[in-house]
Amino acid sequence: MIRFIHTADVHLDAPLTNLSSIYEIRQEDFRRTMRRIRDVAINNQVDFWLIAGDLLEYHGGTRATALFLRELFDSIAPIPIFISPGNHDPWQEGSFYQTMEWPAHVHIFTDEWGVYEYPEKSCVLYGWGFPQAHVTTSPLDSFPGTLPDYRYHIMVIHGSVITGEHTEHSVYAPMTIGGLADTGVNYVALGHIHKPMQFLHPQTQQVFAVYPGSPEGLSMKENGERYAILGTISGNGDVTVEPISVQSRISRKLTISLKGLETIDAIVERVEQELSQVNKEDLLYVTFEGERASYLQVPVEIIKSRCKKYFFIQFTDQTYPDIDEQQVKEKGGVLGKWLEKLDDLEQAATNEREKAVIQLAKREALQQIGSVFR
Questions:
Q1: Half-sphere exposure (CA, 13 Å, Cβ side) for 250?
Q2: Model pLDDT for residues 79-127, shown as the tens digit of each residue
Q3: 3-state secondary structure of 303
């Protein structure tokens, strides 16, 4: 049996847009997450640590962070570590992969396929790395093939699994499930897509390729728990993967309805009640929604003043005033014609996307009308 830990897309020293006020703390969170993954590897006595790219930013990555990684990797020796450089940390001149000396048990792949044999484990590791930010051809075209007389075959690679037509990810080492299956490996440790995804082998219908997702959320889009993969390959080649929650903080999206609330105090009380249910050390992205009294505005600044105990919190107001649309239309004038025009556009919408855009425009219109009546 072979056991491994698989992670990818850590993005150490990434800019973290909109988090400048807590940037240094978040960077320490990312380092803590890496230490946690290291601990999972040690506690589970893994045979290999697989890192499928975008580990340390090529643009903006610091020597201090590179030294942190070197010390972290030293602490897990002699467990072999395999890194497949990605589009954010390519194997190219000036990268810390090339300018720093790494421990002997750390293996960094290049754009020429690397093959590492472990006869005592009857296992071979194969890997490839980005030589620059964009690669439009499939690295599988030059895959050397699996070595004979070994039981286990593992691939580590950063790139895009393309399941349809050309996409924005097609310039990032495009691959197909069929192409990966044809290599004959037991497991493909993937990186690049930040959302966890698992792929089944076309013939065996068993999991054989996995994107673990980013282990620490980089934005509000990467909300919820984040994972590393603890995997095993049995003696007969069956693959088992277990997502292990490893994040330091969770990015959480919350929606709070303000419908029916008629005073500022009532709004503030509702928000405090909803927020009392969540971990104040997480990153909170709160959206206010629903119909509100037309004479009220959401008191965002007051709410912020009550939320200083939270590590990070961001508010978005998507409420709309309780205006009688029909009454406004019957009165005519510019405002009534505005709403009638939006109704016509909504009815003429040819798909759900167009309809959603018109509905958003109507909410904005009601916001403006509400400010006139306030």
A1: 13
A2: 999 999 999 999 999 999 999 999 999 999 999 999 999 999 999 999 9
A3: helix
**What is the CB-side half-sphere exposure of residue 231 using CA atoms within 13 A?**
29
Let me know whether 193 and 259 are in one domain. no
Write the Ramachandran bin of 3: left for phi over 0, alpha for psi from -120 to 50, otherwise beta.
Answer: beta
Q: Under 8 Å CB-to-CB from 271, ≥6 apart: which residues?
A: 256, 286, 288, 303, 306
Which single residue is written with the structure tokens 């990810």? Answer: 169
- Please tell me what DSSP assigns to residue 310: S
Banded model confidence at residue 42, pLDDT cuts 50, 70, 90: very high
Instruction: Quickly tell me which residue has 């590393």 as its tokens.
Output: 228
The end-to-end CA distance of the chain, in Å, is 70
| 179 and 44 part of one domain | yes
The answer to whether 359 and 349 have CB atoms below 8 angstroms apart is no
Report H helices in 122-254.
177-182
Q: 228: which 2 tokens?
A: 């590393």
Contact (CB, 8 A) for 156 and 52: yes
| Domain shared by 7 and 136, yes or no | yes
